[in-house]
Amino acid sequence: MPHANILEHDEADQWFVDSIDLRSFVATAKEIRDRTIDNPALTLSELEPYFKALLTKQDWLPENFAQPNPNSSMGGGIGQWLLYRAQDRSLTIFSLVIPPGSTTPVHDHLAWGLIGLYKGQLEETRYRRVDNGDTQESAVLELVEVQQQKRGDVYRLLPPDGDIHAVKAITIFAPSVSIHVMGNDIGSILRNKYNPEQKSVQSFRSGYSNIPHKK
Question: pTM of the predicted model, to two decimals?
Answer without folding.
Answer: 0.91
